[in-house]
Fold these 2 entries.
Entry 1:
Amino acid sequence: MRFLFKTDYEDDIKLFPHSGYLYSYGLLIAVLLVAPYVLSSYLMSQLVFVCIYATVGVGLLILTGFTGQASLGHAAFLAIGAYTAAYLQQFNVPFPVYFLAAGLLTGIVGALVGFPALRLQGIYLVIATISFALIVEEIMARWESVTHGNEGMRVKTMQLLGTTVPRDGPTFYYLCLAVLVLTIVGTLNLLRSPTGRAFVAIRDSETAARSMGINVALYKVKSFAISAAITGFAGVLFAHKLSFISPEMFTLQLSIEFIIVILIGGTFSLHGAVLGAIFLVMIDPFLTYLKDDMPGIIAGVAATLGAGKERAGHIQDAVAAFASANGLKGAIYGVIIVLFVLFEPLGLYGRWLKIKLFFQLFPLYKRATFKRQKIYVKSERNR
Amino acid sequence: MSYFRAENLSLHFGGLKAVDSVSFAVEKSEILSIIGPNGAGKSSIFNLISRIYPPTSGKIFFEDQDITQQPSYDIAKLGIARTFQNIELFENASVLANLLVGRHRHSTTQLWQELLFLPSVRAGEKAHRRRVEQVIEFLDLEPYRDKLISGLPYGVRKVIELARALCSEPKLILLDEPSSGLNVEETDDMSFWIRDLRSDLGITVLMVEHDMTLVNRVSDRVIALNYGRVLAMGSPSEVQQHPDVVAAYLGA
């Protein structure tokens, strides 16, 4: 067990509390840097999606995890970022310019969404953000002069500093990784300065935040804007990765996927966004595997257990029909969310902390350490 | 002119007159207590001052400035801090983070500077931290710095709330039942601290309190309220012997 002896106020400010962090994160970065030369192109593509989803996850964490304002509209912010990139590309705007423009525009839209959201709380805010996402989806489908409607838009290969950056090459991966790392560092900086503390204060008690001199409305709008801007940046990368965008890619299901990212990763730390993104990106190939191989496997098991060849064939068909049923993915997502909320509310990162503590304290670990407790009743009167 | 003044302050919820044209003044460096039975309107007066509720009528002055229409977040910037009857701490943050939020009104950094964590932000953080450390020392909170609020006992939370208010370096502090839920020893500590607030830090104190021992020990003056109206005003012993106050408490 390690004990930290703090001798300077700097010890509470610095990003890495002790040298161990430096080594482990340094190692992680090194592994991620050599990944393109080691991993298959399929895994690299998955890794790019992890970076993009994790970036959105960090953005959503700022709003939902740290400011306590739930949002089911982040697919719309992603769409605004993606469409801004695709639209500006037509005029041969260079990548850095439309990348920043997409973030800026999405940030402004986020702030505008933040204003009506000021008076809403909890489930009503969720409904408002869903409505916003539906409005944006509708605009994308109808505003054909700009978005080409349901036909969608092609996104040209990225040109950066005179070179072509193909969407499956290592340079694109490094770019996504850099955006993710910069987002995380910026967010960590924010969280250790007055603005980040104001966000957390608003999450835990608006009344107290107000009485400490925090302009709650202003900071909520700021939180919306920052969260949206980060999602907008991710949207540009998303558009380039897919090379084609259309309104049906940015549906409510995508917003729910983002919520899954932070809920499963853990809402109290930025680690959660990355772990959640890995989980979400890896669940898709797993589902495909289930769909393709499960019927055969189950039929095989049934056959060895003595079911006739015909029976086994029926079973195979039934399982295949079930596995390819419409909306099964959504149902599985729903079940995953429910299970995590019930049994692992701190998410994957919480589980990681528990495992770490178990080995640090072995054999003295107490299960109750992480038990959720609510002893004192909090007043709801001063809302 | 008084340091802090409430003039004919009223707060009506429909037909219910929670506060009914209450007027009082607080002098600089005074400890003034408001007492009264449950539902007398004591906390409502606090909520009017910190602008959680807009008053139905009446005016509030602080340092000769009319603050009746100031937005609630500006009240803290003027130098009025408060604690809450039912503890409104930031549950899922550490004690340090809670106290640093108290420093919010003194922070001057811009968002873009914070994103890059420029040297100015770093210097600001250290300055805030130094002030917080002084408050921690003043209230003996050293063992709890890195603890989460959600794991701390009630008595400690009460002190942390006072600490958070002090971190904003207020000129006037509103204490809503500082001793509720505290045991005898903790109440003793609290009464020492409240007197030290005035003598060491020069802070004016306005407090709502039920514990008459504490009130007698620290207050210069006492206001007794009932049904939103002022029953009596004066020294602690005067107010306690006032026939209307006795009637309000004992129902005689």
Note: The CA atoms of residues 100 and 245 of chain A lie 19 Å apart.
Entry 2:
Amino acid sequence: MDRTISNFIRALRNAEVRVSTAETLDAVSTVELVGYRDRAHLKRSLALVLPKTADEKETFDACFDQFFSFQDVRGETSQGDADGEAESDQQEGGEGEGSSAGGEQRPRQRGGKSKRKSKQNNLFQEEEEPDLGPGPITDPNSSLGKLLMANSRVELSMAMAAAGEATQVREIKIFTQKGLYARRIMDEMGLPDLNQEISDLRQAPTVPARRLGQQLRQRRDFLREQVRDYVEQQFLLNADVSGKRLREELLRKVKLSNVEHRNFRLIQEIVYKMAKKLSTLHSRRKKVFKRGQLNISRTLRKNMSYDGNIFDLYWKSVKIDRPKVFAICDVSGSVANYARFMLMFLYSLDEVMPKVRSFAFSSDLAEVTELFNRNKIEDAIAKTLHDYSGGSTDYGQALLDFKKLCMDDVDNRTTIIILGDARNNFGEAHADVLKELYDRSKRVIWLNPEARLAWNTGDSEMRKYGAYSHQVEECNSLMHLERVVSNLLRQAS
Amino acid sequence: MAEQQAETVAEIDKIAASVSSLRQSFEAHRYICSDQIATAVFLAYQLRKPILIEGPPGVGKTELAKTAAEMFALPLIRLQCYEGLDESKAIYEWKYGKQLLYTQILKQALDEVLAGAQGFTASVQKLHAFGDIFFSEEFLEPRPLLKALKEEDGCVLLIDEIDKADHEFESLLLEILSDFQVSIPEIGTVKAVSEPPLVFLTSNNTREISDALKRRCLHLYIPFPEPDIEQRIIAARVPEIPPELQRQLVAFIQELRTLDLKKMPAISETIDWARTLVLLHAESLDPKLVSDTLNVILKFQEDIDSVASEVNALTAKIAK
């Protein structure tokens, strides 16, 4: 199969664009159709075949630009090759001038530039002229030396890619490995032999041999640059996201109160993904209803075996049953570290599930559904925390407020989730309100961010409240949260 | 017939031979499209793949399919999706009435058929010999999808607003989208007659389309158009509009799209507005005119209120 395309798809997958095998095949036939010649056309064509959401299209754009520019640098297209080489060659020449400690001084002329650009794959030769003269030059012995002197840009980059393959540079995970991989690739390509040859040639008696040594040294440095670029590209294409996945995996397990500030954005993404996954997983359930419009064709068909006498009826209407969820979140100081995440989850849940009503309280309770709907996630959370986190915790008051606000809306299909540590500052618990909720609703779920051991110590009213909850769970990591909500959705539907 | 068909196919082949010829042909049919859109139709034709078109309402998703049908001179078969749509509405249905009627009429004939049969087993065997006449093509009522497959010269099949249909319906589509065939248990598999239909699916993204469906389609996202394309669209659709007004109008709409609105004005609204302004014999946009006709481009009172206060600033900005 087309190597370039499969590598590109690998890079895409790393960037979290989901590409199935069938789509890979489509991409291959697309490339067969449009070819590599017209870059813009190729990009537009692949953009139709590979990414399948608006988000993925953005990622695709970035990925495509990065990936196919890389091809230019590596020298697989002839145009990019000439330019790229001329540039890096100049740079290299500059270095040579400064650091010509052991070798001969070489006056350099800028005039060679245009000439150099015009000739492809033959740039090293050009440098020879102002140097020791066009004298004879001995043949290199090491394999890498031969390759370097062969002046074939394409062969060199192929060798580099092969070495990369052999050292499995694609497995690179973190940036500190870059040096290691660059070194491994150089070694794989035969650097030790070359170094040996260069140091031998430095002491060589004849001019042609010394000339060769100088040439080889320049080209080695140039190669080193190239390899470094190559590894860098591979890192960007392959590792960036595996690293991210690793971090995501860790973040799921870490206690929410310990998450560092810089990871908030990532957490937000995870939470959103989680909420979305959960809601798509569960929103599909339907109940066939025993009323609605008569499905005539199906009824007739089923009753044909009864000689057309209709006594087995089929109805058209089916009902999609989505859970109705009321979520109450404690945002007071004692759970401040968790509140942010709970709110984040509430917000995400709200985006993906149609019937979530959210409430926040510390002493007084208020509905924040509207606030969530109108604002972006950061603003919504900041506003909620600002508006409601001031007072000291009073669960009793909050429950009373909730009763006043929306007890009438609570019916036997409602699930109530309460997020809080149940630390009531020794105030009146008003567990009777919770009992009423318990009786009316389908489920009451209490999620407590504290470890089970700490429940019922001090001013925690967990025992009282726990008695009137269908389910009491410890919930202080994203994993807990996911499990609880998945359970909730399963039972709610 | 065959000759005519070959002619159409050759014609279509010629149009769909390259992206630029497609785009020109679209333009000739007053559908101004970006390269991306033309590429999508190009690939869809060359690779025989359905296109799933997503994008905000009113950017010309349905119009693309209609224009393609017109351009290729193929019949357009349209299936409008809605909640509760099922195979009996989309693929096929048995003609139950006819079946019932025939069974009643044929009751009398049954004695003759069975004459001479000894015992129950022999009678049943004799009946078997007649085959399933009641479940043959005679009694089959083809619905849009089956109709599209049976179309001799090929056709354009538009499955509109697939996101409005139930999740299960998507699974029903999978067979027809990937293999251009439909399985009817009583008859067998019906394949596309000669030319497989060119399939367009549109979605407004009210819900996520399943991966299985997306995987079988090319995915085209049509965003709001760039100013120059939008100007050309207006010029193509409302040719009588004065050029200066056209420029201002598009600039105004483009400005509106940068605001935080409940529903952004799409191309269809821009066209409507252009027509309205032409009707009112407007030469250029002024604040009063804009305020009076805002309800053509904005569909929520909330949006109208928030824009009304900024009309002056906006018109001043685009007058430059």
Note: Chain A has four domains: 3-74, 78-93+137-249, 273-285+322-492, 288-320.
